[in-house]
Amino acid sequence: MPGMSRNDKIIPLADLRAPRSASLDALIREGANNTAAGSAPPQDTRGRFLHDLRISVTDRCNFRCVYCMPKDVFGRDYPFLPHSELLTFEEIARVARIFVRLGVRKIRLTGGEPLLRRNLEQLVALLAEIHGVDLTLTTNGALLAREARALRAAGLRRVTVSLDALDDATFRVMNDVDFPVARVLEAIDAAHAAGLTPIKINAVIKRGMNEAAVLPLARHFKGTGHIVRFIEYMDVGHTNGWRMNDVVSAAEIVRTIDRELPLEVADANYAGEVAERWRYRDGTGEIGVIASVTQAFCRDCTRARLSTDGKMFTCLFATDGYDLRGLLRGNRDDTEIENAVAALWRRRADRYSEIRGANTGRTQKIEMSYIGG
Ligand code: GTP
Ligand code: 5AD
Ligand code: SF4
Ligand code: SF4
């Protein structure tokens, strides 16, 4: 990656925040000066392109996973966004087309729980019209069995389903709404039958809660064609009370599986892939580990996020986002918005996971359910 080296000096957190205060017209001019028609796609200050857009379509969820939306914070009185604040499907599709012109090749619908957004298949249909894009969705599976066929028919290609344990009691404690494992397994079968493949299964592993789930999950999905990815528990948001001691490292997870089901490392599918791939030596499939804490992957991070209310974030751990909704609703044309997004991307310096440490714990962060997981 141009302009990067392992020995890059540590930059104080304050300097990592892209200045959002720049006036809109200044941004648009800055973008326009650098984006002559047909010119190269924008690169950020660390030489990274913009390849992925993760769109949060709702900040609500029907689960209360302990590592994401703990019940004592996200209770009855929690001020979720009112409907008028949400981007409409037309607005989301317009933003998506602009991002695709700037280089985006993968769009992931997230939340919150994206299937809680009514008529989501209508958004999928709008996004599926954009050529050359890998269109996917992350869901907890609760509503997936019912929606899988309609989503596939609308043009969704594949899904990622979160499932943190196979043991029912453990899973019910983790989702904290008493949701049974069996219903998620049914949803995975329905997604498979609908052709939403390859299916990935995301399991966040938290010490003292579900590290015993690693082997059963690996055993269960081995040979099914579904790919389980074990995710290190991260310090996203400021509500989950994260401590380093709660993290089960990807290395430990690989060792645990490899002892019973021998593994060998596999090449990445594409540059900047978040998961590190491991293949079963007996040829019956693969798993992934996502080592966002112990082996940060910021140097290849090509992801932008669009929050439920239309703010653009250039890092999962960013403290503020840029209000694209204001541009969409403010009579700006597509070229102006494209120039503003290009300028924001060119200013990007984020690498939170690389500099995570004592002082980052105290910074204010945005909840993952709002910014998109
Ligand atoms: P594929 O397109 O199937 O390869 O999926 P992906 O690699 O984009 O992974 P997915 O969207 O399923 O992300 C899995 C998990 O990785 C997320 O839920 C996060 O926990 C973590 N993750 C994804 N993107 C980022 C990121 O940009 N930064 C950090 N720190 N973690 C991320
Ligand atoms: N650490 C790691 N991943 C998280 N997710 C949510 N919160 C966390 C966290 N604290 C991710 C999981 C889940 C998706 C919706 O968001 O991957 O499957
Ligand atoms: Fe909901 Fe997913 Fe967060 Fe769990 S991890 S609370 S399912 S958004
Ligand atoms: Fe990308 Fe920020 Fe995650 Fe690093 S911490 S991989 S820059 S989203």
What this model shows, in words?
It contains 13 helices and twelve strands. It has a single domain (9-371), classed as Aldolase class I (TIM Barrel, Alpha-Beta Barrel), CATH 3.20.20. The protein has a twelve-stranded mixed beta sheet with strand order 7-8-9-6-5-4-3-2-1-10-11-12. The protein has 373 residues and is α/β, with parallel strands linked by helices. The protein is globular and about 60 Å long. Helix 8 (214-221) links the parallel strand 5 and strand 6. One iron/sulfur cluster (SF4) binds next to helix 12.
Please give a quick description of this structure:
The protein is of the alpha/beta class. The protein contains 13 helices and 12 strands. Strand 3 (134-139), helix 5 (144-154) and strand 4 (158-162) form a beta-alpha-beta unit.
SS summary, helix count: 13
| Helix and strand run | HHEHEHEHEHHEHEHEEEEEEHHHH
What is the CATH first-level class name? Alpha Beta
Q: Bound compounds, please?
A: guanosine-5'-triphosphate, 5'-deoxyadenosine, iron/sulfur cluster
Largest sheet: 12 strands, mixed
How large is the radius of gyration?
20 Å
Mean of residue pLDDT? Answer: 89
- Total tally of structural domains: 1
| Range of strand content | 5-15%
User: In CATH terms, what is the fold-level topology?
Assistant: TIM Barrel
* Overall geometric form: globular
Distance between the termini: 25 Å
Low-confidence stretches: 1-20
Name of the CATH superfamily: Aldolase class I
Count of extended strands: 12
